[in-house]
Amino acid sequence: MDNIIEIQKLDFTIDTRKILHDINLSIRQGEFVGLIGPNGAGKTTLLKCINGINPAEGLVRIKGRHIKTYGDKELAREVALMHQNTSIGFPFSALDIVLMGRYPYLGRFKRESGEDHKIARSNMSYTNTQGLENSPITQMSGGERQRVLFAKTLTQETGIVLLDEPTASLDITYQEQIFKYSAELTSLGITVVAAIHDLKIAARYCTRLVLLDNGAIAADGKPEEVLTSENISRVYGVNALVYRNRITGLLDIYINRFSPHKKSGRAHVIGGGGSATAVLRALYEQGYTVTAGVFFHGDSDIGSAEVFGVKYLAEKPFCEISEELQSENVYNIKNSELTILCNMPFGFQNMGNLQAALNAKKLVIIEDEKPEVRDYTEGKALELYNRLKRTAAAVIPSARLHEVL
Amino acid sequence: MKKADFKIGIIPVMLMVLLVITIAGTAVGAVYVPFFDTFRIILKNLGLLKNAVFAEGQEPIIFLVRFPRVAVAALAGTALGASGAVMQGMFRNPMADPGILGISSGAGLGAVLAIKLGLAAVSMYYMPLFAFTGAFLAIMAIYLLSYQKGKVPVLTLILSGIAISTFLGAITNIILTISYDYQVKEFLFWSTGGLEGRRWEHFRLIVLPVFISVVLMCIFSRDLNVLLMGEEEAKSVGLNTGRLRTVLLILVSAATASAVCVTGSISFVGLIVPHIMRLLIGPDHKILLPASAIGGAIFLVGCDLISRVVAVPYELGVGIITALLGAPYFLYLLLKSKRAGGAVI
Q1: Which of A149, A320, A371, B287 is surrounded by the most beta carbons within 10 Å?
Q2: Three-class SS of residue B292?
Q3: What is the pLDDT of residue B2?
């Protein structure tokens, strides 16, 4: 029995509106599955189909058994669901709430035993809410309440834990915490399926992502397979770029809400040492066709150039720019209506870039720091830079870049 | 832990209060009987105290006239207090009360029908049965009219309650209009006039249904707690919410109908008592339900006592006293709910 959850040909309709259609999904024990997708894609609905609240057409099997063959309490001993926005208007203490997770284990005439209290308390200390035991839930902050409800969900002691937007309206500290707990659970063999809004956090913690679009599965697989620029752009209807953040090593997403209004112009960016990143983004947002160079391998500007689809030239590190690259760079500059010289440091290796800039049709120099402090060539580069400054169409700080684009 | 001890400790305290107010309610009246003699007369007649002698005429006055009336008040109060607590939990709404919501008028209509059809004369249990059916149908109608997506909004609840209540009241009046005098008298004997002239036969008629339904309600207290978390939340821990609601509606109907059969419609007991108890001991139905049951008894016996002494030599109906206390409290709740942004709770 490999798949702990098995969904086949699942359809769910409210009135005549199809909320989910033809969902096929098999989940193995210990997976941490993130359900992602825009609002109204059916994430919550699907979770509620898995725990039987939503009576759906098709097949849902838990541990190989159709959920309709489970009794109410029996199913609640296999699957727990933490709901989104649970509002509790009555001042139950946190311990009372957590103990409600024992409901499926208690017969009508049985009281909560010492064992039940032990389980509840250990989950409260796990979620760091043991100090709130006697506090009324109505007087808790959103973070505290959510952690208490999480403890209650765990107190159900199920092999499958479903989380519906577990971190909506939480501080970033608690967001990370709940996902860390969930990841820990999966290492204990518990299967976690969570509807998640935040794509970055989903990519970071989940072992698998399922992208829902309009009630159907649009993509399913490892985070890096599902979270691609094409998938996100198509499903969310935005212009999204997915990339691996070089600083954190995690998947990151850049979203440009407005599709680039196509300025058909060509622009060339001369940069290095990270000075070109913001310029490249600005040009991308304006829709320019951009070339860049000459960078040196390992430079963070290259990462930006790749994310924004910029053609760039790159030389081996610690070498002077070769003649071949230099002439290619000059060719690119001559072909561009606009050349931007970024606020970069100058050394003997990249002097060629300054020389190439002399060929610019329209040169914009970005100057955030005085060139004197960026010159590591004992004045040679500075001389060239000052010559460029005299021919430049504009010399501006990067904050005013938008004025010339 | 101390807090929980305090909460459970309130039950014996309330029982003591009930005992004292019951004796006080029995002692007070036109013929003066000292408090302790009253207690001893009751004990003697219950077979707990032998060989006691009392002044001429005191025993029948206490045990055949006053005590049954107080006992009926206590029973009706128990039924209404517990029903109110269950309904407020079930609807997740502190405005729920069997009287306001027209359940009582459903029970009243049922009782009148039983008398009009001559069935009440056949067996004394036809009337409570009809009253129960009427109450159940009324509460079902209100429930279906105001239930929306797991919640029962205050406004819809009260409006549908008023509509149903008025409608059923009108039908009751029509039936009474076309009834014979003796039937009207019989109806008046049973179902109106508050507690005046209640006797042991009234007590015997409802003691079992009230007792059984209130005990059963207490058995469902954990389920009610879970239901308070919300419909889907409750389903997620394996509670069959549909079945629970049906069972609770039947129990509330039985308890309320029992009370209505012997006292007529008395409003606000089921509203005030559970609400005050919740403020005192919290929302846990395991304690809230028994506390509301006992509290209802204390409240109604107390109101009955007030109704008899406040305007001597006249006697106000007990319903007048509960309404005088309850209506302002109800308005206060309504305003508070409005201030909280019209929230359901």
Answers
A1: A149
A2: helix
A3: 43
| CATH class of residue range B72-339 | mainly alpha
Q: Is the pLDDT of residue B80 over 50?
A: yes
CATH of region A266-403, choose from 1.20.1530.20, 3.60.15.10, 3.40.1190.20, 3.40.50.2000: 3.40.1190.20
CB B134 within 8 A of CB B107: yes
Choose among A312, A267, A307: nearest CA to A287.
A267
- Higher-confidence residue of B162 and A156: namely A156
The dihedrals phi and psi of A77, each to the nearest 5 degrees, come to -90, -10
B225 in contact with A, Cβ within 8 Å: yes
Nearest Cβ partner for A80 among B232, B236, B282: B236
CA distance B109 to B91: 24
**Which pLDDT belongs to residue A195?**
96
Q: What is the pLDDT of residue A402?
A: 85
In this predicted structure, what is the pLDDT of residue B116?
Answer: 87
Check CB contact under 8 Å for A100 and B229.
yes
When pLDDT is cut at 50, 70 and 90, the band that residue A249 belongs to is confident
Tell me the mean pLDDT in the region A244-259: 81
Under an 8 A CB cutoff, do A53 and B222 touch?
Answer: no
Q: Which residue of B has its CA nearest to A156?
A: B237
Shortest Cα distance from B24 to chain A (angstroms)? Answer: 35
Tokens 């600083």 label which residue? A247
For residue B9, the model assigns a pLDDT of 85
Residue B344 forms contact with A (CB below 8 Å) = yes
ipTM of the complex: 0.79
Q: How far A167 CA lies from chain B's nearest CA (Å)?
A: 17
User: Pick from A73, A86, A91: which is nearest to B283 by CB?
Assistant: A91
Tell whether domain A3-226 is in CATH 3.40.50.300: yes
pTM given for the model: 0.82
pLDDT digits (tens, 9 = 90+) for B143-160: 888 777 666 676 787 788
Domain residue extents for chain B: 72-339
Per CB-CB distance under 8 Å, the chain B contacts of A74 are 238
Q: Which residue has the higher pLDDT, B115 or B333?
A: B115
Tell me whether residues A53 and B226 touch, CB distance under 8 A: no
Under 8 Å CB pairs connecting chains A and B tally to 71
Minimum CA–CA partner of B340 in chain A: A89
